[in-house]
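Task: sequence design from structure.
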């Protein structure tokens, strides 16, 4: 492994132990980091010493932490940085979208080909994300999964845990997202299952909310789904989302754009990249085109 790469590992993610074992066996230097606030310090220190190539070993949440630290850097510094990914999390949505191998050695080999492309980021209020997220069912699911894992510390279910908790929310009475306004479009919704803002086709590995989204096209896709009237119809909608066929339903809508403002009656968390990013009743969202150069 070339010395110029700075490898940062989140030791809390599901399969980080495999990455650490591989690095130790091959005498490869790496940094372990759990805290988001320390990432900006690591970035600044490494850039000052001339290191501009990073490899992030973790899940989508850890990549999100890196991206938000990265966006605090001056723009002239950001233009010089390239990022590779070793997927070690539950869903690994960005790695899947970039076709990164899940075998550690193969992922390294792919990075060493030095093939890169610049992908878009999405800004929501003062935060950034790279895969997708939104309000309603995805947010409540991630919140409950995080609470469950904080108590159980279980890694057995991997990404399947998101699907199980979606079913749990629906069966035990998901109330929906109430009174949502899209300001630019002057559209009001009384009750939604979810509103998702996507930079790629899927989140949580299985949920293909925006089948035609592309993280290089300078636009995001907003998926809006009204709350079905029964548990059965809700489960049917989830099945359609998994297959990417929900847009044929009269209760599903899609908007493509570069900027949007979402207003709610009550404060909610906006979830993206598997993280609860910010809490507000107003979310200003815009695309940040070609902001991150990644190995793929």
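Answer:
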């Amino acid at each position: 492994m070339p010395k110029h790469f700075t490898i940062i590992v989140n030791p809390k993610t599901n399969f980080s132990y495999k990455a650490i074992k591989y690095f130790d066996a091959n005498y490869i230097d790496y940094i372990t980091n759990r805290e988001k606030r320390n990432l900006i310090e690591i970035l600044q220190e490494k850039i000052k010493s001339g290191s501009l190539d990073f490899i992030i070993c973790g899940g989508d949440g850890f990549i999100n932490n890196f991206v938000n630290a990265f966006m605090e850097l001056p723009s002239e510094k950001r233009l010089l940085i390239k990022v590779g990914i070793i997927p070690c999390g539950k869903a690994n949505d960005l790695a899947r979208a970039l076709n990164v191998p899940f075998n550690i050695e193969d992922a390294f080999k792919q990075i060493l080909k030095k093939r890169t492309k610049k992908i878009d980021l999405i800004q929501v209020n003062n935060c950034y994300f790279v895969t997708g997220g939104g309000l309603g069912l995805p947010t409540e699911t991630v919140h409950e999964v995080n609470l469950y894992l904080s108590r159980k510390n279980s890694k057995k279910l991997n990404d399947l845990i998101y699907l199980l908790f979606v079913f749990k929310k629906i069966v035990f009475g998901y109330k929906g997202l109430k009174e949502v306004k899209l300001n630019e479009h002057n559209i009001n919704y009384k009750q939604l299952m979810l509103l998702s803002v996507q930079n790629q086709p899927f989140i949580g590995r299985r949920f293909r909310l925006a089948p035609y989204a592309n993280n290089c096209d300078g636009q995001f896709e907003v998926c809006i789904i009204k709350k079905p009237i029964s548990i059965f119809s809700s489960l049917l909608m989830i099945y359609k989302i998994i297959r990417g066929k929900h847009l044929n339903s009269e209760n599903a809508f899609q908007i493509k754009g570069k900027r949007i403002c979402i207003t709610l009656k009550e404060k909610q968390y906006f979830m993206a990249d598997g993280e609860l990013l910010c809490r507000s009743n107003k979310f200003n969202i815009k695309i940040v085109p070609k902001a991150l150069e990644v190995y793929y």
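The radius of gyration is 19 Å.
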